[in-house]
Give the backbone structure.
Amino acid sequence: MSKITVAGVRQNVAELLEYSNETKKRNFLETVELQIGLKNYDPQRDKRFSGTVKLPSVPRPNMSICILGDQHDIDRAKHGGVDAMSADDLKKLNKNKKLIKKLARKYDAFVASDTLIKQIPRLLGPGLSKAGKFPTPVSHADDLSAKITEVKSTVKFQLKKVLCMGVAVGNVGMTPDQLIANIMLAINYLVSLLKKGWQNVGSLTIKATMSPPKRIY
């Protein structure tokens, strides 16, 4: 049973969008983040959760993606104007931790040909996994642009050592309905991961990059 109403979220979304699109409009597309504070949770003792969910609308359309591909997927990526690297390009990094870290920082997410994905730990070591950016597989039968949209629409909830986390749930260019649908789905999915559901939720806040935060729970 959800503890927050669509009407309550709608009011906060309307105020946030008004602030970002009218009161203080910025010259870039602000991301809207859902900030979560947990309670009655001990990251040392309780199981740390990790899960991903696909949102109905892409939260960050300008998210940077790199394809780690075989020749077929590199050609498809180039045709679609997406950055791509081959197995040879990855070999040239020589498992150099600094260079792999730099690669992981340069892109928000990676997609890899399913023919290549098994070789990635051998070619790059654990660098991408450590950064939480292990590639999503794509096969030749998949539509590459649909796969990229899927990756851009997916958000990850991962509990680390602290009881707060934030995930991108939208941007200020969205309609209120798109933003509300993303926020509600993200919250309900998060609650499903928690050991005691809503009893573990301390606070939920939405905030655009430059806006004041709006507490919704």
